[in-house]
Specification:
By secondary structure, chain A is mainly α. Chain A has 18 helices and six strands. In chain A, a hairpin with a 7-residue loop joins strand 2 and strand 3. Classes of the chains: A mainly alpha (472), B mainly beta (1016).
Amino acid sequence: MRMKKNFYILIGFITTVIVIGITSCAKIEETKPDYIFTEEDAIKTPTDVQNLLNSCYDAFANAINGRAQTFNDLLSDDLAKPLKDDNGFKNEIYNRNTNIFNSDVSALYKTFYVIPFRINNMEDFYAKVGVSETEQKRMRAEGRFLRAACHFEVLKLWAHPSGFTPANEHAGIVIRDAVSQLPKARSTVAESYAFIISDLEYAIANLPAVNDDYKASQGSAKALLAKVYYMMNKPAQALALLNDVIASSGKSLSGALNKFDSTAALSEFIFTTRSTGAGDNRAGEFVSRYRCDNKIPEFALSKELYLLLTSDTLDKRGKNLVQIFNAGKDNEYYGCKKFNSDYFGVPYLNMTDMILTRAELAAETGDLSTAIGDVNKIIFRAYADSTTKIVSGGANASDVLAEIRKQRRLELFCEGDRVQTLKRRGANNTDASYNPNLTIRNAPWNCPGMILQFPSIETGAGFVFNGTGGCN
Amino acid sequence: MIKTFTKQTLWLAAMLIGTSAFADKIKGRLVDDKNEPIIGATVAIENTAFGAVSDANGFYEIKNLPAGTYKLKISYLGYQTTYLEVLAIADDATDVPKSITLKEDSKALDDVVVVGYGTKLKREVTGSIAKINAKELNDMPIPSFESALQAKLPGVQVTTGSGVAGSSAVIRIRGVASISAGGDPLYVVDGIPITQDFFLNNGNSAGNSGGMNNNPLASINPDDIESIDVLKDAAATAIYGSRGSNGVILVTTKRGRKGGFSVSYTGSVGISRPTALPNMLNSTEYLQLYQEAYENDGGIGLAPLPGGISWEQARKTNTDWVDLTTRTGIKNTHSVTVSNSGKKGGIYGSVGYSNNESYLVGNRYERISGRLNGDYNLTKKLKAGVSTSLSQGTNYRVNTAWAGGLGQAMSTALPIYPVYDSVGKYFTGDNPVRTQELKKWRTTEIRSINNIQLDYELAKGLIATGKYNLDYMQLQDDQYDPQALINSTHLGTANRYATYVSNYSYSLMLNYRRAIGKDHSMSLMGAYEFQESRTNSSSVSSNNMTNGFWDDKADAAEQGRLPKVNPEDGYSFLSYFGRANYDYKKKYFVEFVLRNDWSTKFGANYRYGFFPALSATWVISDEKFFKIPSVSLTKIRMAYGKSGNANIPTNQYLSKWQPAGASTPYYNQPITFPSIIPNPDLRWETSWTFNAGIDVGLFKDRVTFTADVYDKRTTDVFMQLALPPSTGFDNYWGNVGAITNRGVEFSITSRNIVGAKFTWITNFNVSRNWNEITSIGAYSEDAVSGGTNDTRVVVGEPVGTNFLVRFKGIDPATGKPIYLDKAGNETFIWDPKDRVAVGNIQPKAIGGIGNNFRYKNWEMNVLLNFVLGGDIYESSAKRQNGVVTTWNMRTDLFDRWQKPGDQAAYARLTQNTATYGSSTPWINTTQWIQDGTFLRLRNVTVAYNLPKSTCQKIKLSSIRIAVIGTNLLTFTKYTGLDPEIARDFENATDRNMSPNITYLTPPQEKTFTVQLSANF
């Protein structure tokens, strides 16, 4: 009898364990807390994928808000030693001596790569949430445009230029064409450019011909590819695209000397970022570093550039875009006035750049007529005078090229252009004015520190860092 | 009956003869069960000075003994102590047997050892378990109970927290097997895996400011602890499955003792001083060196001084900040316990109070605690047990280390800065006195650990157990910065960060034990357990307070502010586990353990896992063929098994996205984006451990030793990876790494002298662990770093190895530091790209030597602990002895380069970082690595036990008075403050990876204490 009772107790005990166990199992399975917003919560419809694409434009705007441009200019001869640099990282760039712990450099590098990650991540959702084939192509093409732009900007800052080695087998950058948390080795510069070109060709083939100027279009993809070929020193391919963009993009050179002083879109904006107010300024880094009408700027122009800009008093650029402060005193400096606004967009691809690029490439390849025609458009705008300063048709080729390059500097200063064109010239052995010994602020164009150092945590198996310093 | 009669007759005779009569002597012979004589046994008459030792033939004789009734105590190592009540009268007439047979004491193997979810006899234990009892635990003042394990257990490395009150010790059992997950052992108090998060309030924005993390173990009263058992190998820890791989510390609290009602009191009063003080420059020295740096850099005239101080002011000021931020701290501890037990059950209760001032001005930890444990046999078959405790620990904190206080005295508080300005107001520059006196900061922890257990005997040998546990913890951090401190236009700023953790579990267990015939016995255990921990937190702040939030009298309006409540966080574990034991003739033991854990911490693909362990023991000395007379015990153990570690933050397997609408849209276009991709494969770390051990007793267990070798291979090691930025996202929890820990442990206890009057026992333990990272996947050394420290994960090196640019020396020609690039070439450029794994952070050996002496009523305990090898990185020295900045410097710089040709330890002084080849003054190099070898006189206790007769006169059963000194002497070549370091860690990764880094870390404390223990 007692045995039986104990048996029942035992059975009851085991049943209790099973029942409680099953109940607890359910608790173990239901784990996701409500406050965590996951992929399943975020991407449910095609609109959500579009929102993800929007975030890529947003991130790109935050990368080219002046950061990428100022880092380029710090390496160049356009800027003086920073007037203010709280953490010393900007001075490292200026000294061409960045190291693996330069967190400003790391932050920019990472900002660019956020975009390929999101673009690549989009591929997981097209079919999942039923994005139509047409929309898939459009979204993918916009994404490829942005992915190419990011890789291109990183390539310019973190790798020596095309031509540094004969077949461009020198180290390029990490190509991110799929979502992965794993480290990756650097591709060669040749491979990096091939990837960028392939993305842009896809974009050109699939983007709408016309789009808002803050979104990618065929014109913007062609303009970017033209710049890529320019940096690769492939004039024929670049000129073909430039002719197309200048003739057919529907954009034209505006009369405004300063592309950054207005919130309104200018006719020459091929692709621009947009800001909606001082609290949503997508050009914040330009304002923080250069603005000189209400504070001492952190960055100022080199004296040499200032004198070049102001040597001709008729040049409205010298008059309107730069200013000397504390003249004659120990603390004299030269402010850049391009960014003296609370907020504005950044015209990443613009007609001024296109025209000057075509002028330079045309001059390099002997088409002086096109070259002179293009550069004179820029000169005319700077002087508002078509008679005294324009380049005459009889000028010799080297003078035309020199004038075009001078005008390029006078137009695009503080926009991150200068150092790349100088490096291109150093590496361009097909150019008649090729100078392998070209220096940039007394440092060889190809010294190790002329490119930025990668962040320490970028490294993994097979990854090779850049050299450090060696420029001063 | 006859015996009683004889005794009474003899007693009567004695009374008749009178008390002055002498029995003259009592004598006899001591033999073992084989009738062999026992030589050297002690025969003592209790509460008298009479005694003797048995001779070569086992005979003993006690002479000149007055007639009377006595209690004879016969003791000898390896034999059970025998008591005999005897009557002695004149002319050698006694009732003492002529021959007394002593029984062999198999106690060494019959001790009860606490194992996971049960107890075992030591003989039955197949795993590696070390034990410490209450007496050893409380033989010195400790900031928290875990510190008492130091130097006493092999394979258990205990680095006592710094001298900050209430600070935590870092315990590593058989090395570090984790990188980003918590590497601390699992603490189980009376069967409850307790909340032990050292960074509990960090997630609530309270941060780790103040130089020392909160210690969740400090609120447990060490006086309540009966024993601590440390489970080390897989055979012992597999029963804790996914949480056992870093070892398990089982804490058993006291329960009602057999022997009736008793009350005891223990109290102590002591003082605290730092073990070392820094050698900072005084004002004259500082000005001289500062000016020298200025002139070396081409400066002309007098250097502009930091803090806006003029040279005239500076020359008049010489503030000793170290002296102003330290003091002699006073400690006092009081504990009263009550214990009672009877046939029906027992009860234990205690109340305790402790106020532990550290040597840091303003810093103390106050603990009030109470405990009630009861057991009651409800019926013959049904037994109930209840435990409940409530404690409150209040940490009155001050800024330390990098945050201020003594740390500031060693860094930015310059000797040329005054405490008060010329009008008597606080100097508002770097002034740790001002901060300490104005800032109010306290952390209050309320903790209650409870359980209720019912055991029912279903059938003979079959017991069902149901248990419910609740561990509740409330941690509240209050900070108040008054207006005078923050120089604000508004009133003071008050912040309160509160975290509440409810950790409950319940289990149902069946135990079955059965002997089969004479030689076989087996036991089976099967159980189910569910545990859930829920954490709620909130914070509130105000800029309009005249006092902190804890002051109910002030700021009534502000007190009513609604706190910002954070979302609830939590995790659950569901487990099924069992254990099967079999033994044959009590000589051969086999055990199999299997646990199945489910956890909400892991991804959908790996939500559950199995953890098996197989182990066996052979008591070889019980074999007939084993005939080595001097060897009284030989037991061989072997085990192999799997355990895991799940100590990571919750929800790390989930992807995390920013919802559309939560961020500023881009040009009115809504945006959504991921910040972390999901990891459905996130799973526990897995350790497979092999252990082989031997327990040996020599000379009737007069000497016993234990030796173990182990090989622990941990895979799927959690790494919170700082991903390559090109991946596009920041951090990612992955099971990436692999770590191997191999080691040897040895401990020996030798009862050197065991006599009636004098006893001398020596304990010695030593262990060596070889730790090596064997894989970090495809990632780089920088993928995981130890907080702000330059420790990294390097394959082939131990966890947390230093990863630094190598320093070659000082160039005699220029005075510049010479570094080595990666290829080993000399360079003046400091480039972090040239970092390599350097030094060896692993000690070659750790251990302790304890000697316990007892002479009559006197006791003396001396404990030494030692660490042989193991490098220390003195991170703050790079600022104190490096580029001259706004930090004070150390007198070490007297040995600096001053002119060409100088052979100096330190470089030419400079304020220009470029002189040292860098753009930053934070130049981490091997120049700041030192050997951390030390030998420390950890504890000296001298105690006196009042004679029983005296105690009885004042109606007490015993009184013990002790004088205790801790950390009295340290022998080391280390030139920093203290070679025993537990710095302010930023997170669990830092705690694993940076145990050898000091950064303005307060040194350990030296204490002197007087302790009184009384039993009523």
